[in-house]
Design a protein that fits this description.
Distance between the termini: 28 Å
CATH class of the domain at 2-73 and 95-178 and 266-349: Alpha Beta
Pfam families: FAD_binding_3
Shape: globular
Radius of gyration: 21 Å
Oligomer: single chain
Helix content: 25-40%
Bound molecules: flavin-adenine dinucleotide
Number of strands: 19
Organism: Roseomonas populi
CATH superfamily of the domain at 2-73 and 95-178 and 266-349: FAD/NAD(P)-binding domain
Keywords: FAD, Flavoprotein
Structural class: alpha+beta
CATH architecture of the domain at 2-73 and 95-178 and 266-349: 3-Layer(bba) Sandwich
CATH topology of the domain at 2-73 and 95-178 and 266-349: FAD/NAD(P)-binding domain
Protein name: 4-hydroxybenzoate 3-monooxygenase
Strand content: 25-35%
């Protein structure tokens, strides 16, 4: 098999890239290790920033999101029983959309399959060779048979454990990582959600109430990193959530059947450069952020918007200028996003090593934000706009 751009991974990065390239008449083949039901059923992110929303619109793939997604105009932070309300449109002129990552993935897969464009499931990439030549080759296994995809460029959109980053010459790759000793226990519950995304910093730890639909709540509790999600009974989960959200009367948060639970470990990770020869990496393959900023999916989409414009320039004019600048541009943005997500994590979570001094500084920061429109505007701007990139598709 031969194509122009060989894409490894059918997560948000790989799928968006394939559609962005197709819109410019550039061929690609996606190789995905997992099955279609597995990829479509993976519950992960749920907040779409304006840059991601507008890209879906330009691709003509936003119909279901517009119908079923929920516009989110507020971000609330609680502490000491009080609420700081960030009015996103009032502070930034923009809002975000609540629409599950698995729904975006389903829409993008359906459009690609319907158009008859190649997307091979259960195709495990084992090796990439020739990235320093004009004819890189992706080796993969499909149905027990070894196969090869020849291409002009390889896009490693294959997540943290993928083959893309492992192919980078290790002597040029710099890795920066911070692993937290706590995690998020996340559940989906059939219960009417709170109207705004609501974070809380309580003496008992962090919690978050967000939405997936008008009938489904997505709820999180900070827990130790080695927690078994099934060790928490439903009653224990609800008791702890009410307590951390200062909902002592249990009147505010509606309870319902918990039908899905998972544990997300928290880490900040950046690998750079994001390219070498004809190999370009995007998304979780090269950066992971703690989830407080709701940024992982949006960062992945922003990367491939930059990459698709650079590849378009190459195929139209032969110029490599944008391709050569890809990593520099994306890594710089990645650091800004990591900084925001890490700051929000530091502001809202309970840290085992915190002294009373540090705890009071954390609360003083929240008091400052509560009283300063400028501080609120800064948080809102970063929450909504860090991956906006108005000059990209
Ligand atoms: C449990 C969890 C919860 C999360 N919650 C949030 C959240 O609330 N908000 C937020 O913004 N972000 C969240 N994230 C992060 C967000 O989901 C990711 O940032 C996003 O999925 C990145 O997209 P991606 O396309 O780069 O990688 P992925 O979605 O990981 O896709 C990579 C794809 O590559 C495939 N692949 C890997 N190796 C190979 C191989 N060798 N051959 C072929 N295919 C391969 C994988 O199967 C996968 O489908 C969460 C992540 C996790 C794990």
């Amino acid at each position: 098999m031969r194509t122009q751009v060989g894409i490894i991974g059918a997560g948000p990065a790989g799928l968006f890239l394939s559609h962005l390239l197709k819109a410019q008449g550039i061929e690609s083949v996606i190789l995905e290790a997992r099955s279609r039901p597995y990829v479509e059923g993976r519950v992960r992110a749920g907040v779409l920033e304006p840059g991601t929303i507008e890209t879906l619109g330009r691709l003509g793939l936003d119909a279901r999101m517009r119908r079923e997604g929920l516009v989110d105009e507020g971000l609330d932070m609680r502490f000491r029983g009080r609420t700081i309300h960030l009015d996103l449109p009032g502070l930034t002129g923009k809002s975000v959309m609540i629409y599950g990552q698995q729904e975006v993935v389903k829409d993008l897969i359906a459009a690609r399959v319907e158009a008859g464009d190649p997307l091979v499931f259960e195709a495990q990439v084992t090796r990439i060779e020739g990235i320093e030549t004009d004819r890189p080759r992706i080796h993969y296994t499909e149905g027990g048979t070894d196969k090869v995809l020849e291409c002009d460029f390889v896009a490693g959109c294959d997540g943290y454990h993928g083959a893309g980053r492992a192919t980078m010459p290790q002597d040029i790759l710099q890795v920066f990582e911070q692993v937290y000793d706590f995690a998020w226990l996340g559940v989906l519950a059939r219960a009417r959600p709170m109207p705004d995304m609501t974070y809380t910093n309580s003496d008992r730890g962090f919690a978050l109430c967000s939405r997936r639909s008008m009938q489904v709540s997505r709820l999180y509790l900070q827990v130790p990193a080695d927690t078994d999600p099934n060790s928490w009974s439903d009653d224990r989960f609800w008791d702890e959530l009410h307590a951390r959200m200062f909902d002592e009367g249990r009147t505010e948060i509606e309870e319902g059947e918990i039908f899905q639970r998972d544990l997300a470990k928290l880490r900040a990770f950046v690998a750079a450069p994001m390219q070498h020869g004809r190999l370009f990496l995007a998304g979780d393959a090269v950066h992971i952020v703690p989830p407080a900023g709701a940024k992982g999916l949006n960062m992945a989409v922003a990367d491939v918007r930059v990459l698709s414009r650079a590849l378009t320039e190459f195929y139209r004019t032969g110029s490599r200028a944008e391709l050569e600048g890809y990593s520099t541009l994306c890594v710089e943005r990645a650091w800004r996003v990591v900084r925001f997500s890490s700051t929000l994590t530091g502001l809202l979570h309970k840290f085992g090593h915190h002294t009373p001094m540090q705890r009071n500084l954390q609360l003083a920061e929240l008091e400052y934000i509560a009283g300063s429109r400028n501080a609120q505007a800064s948080i809102a701007e970063q929450y909504v706009m860090l991956n906006y990139l108005p000059d990209y598709p």
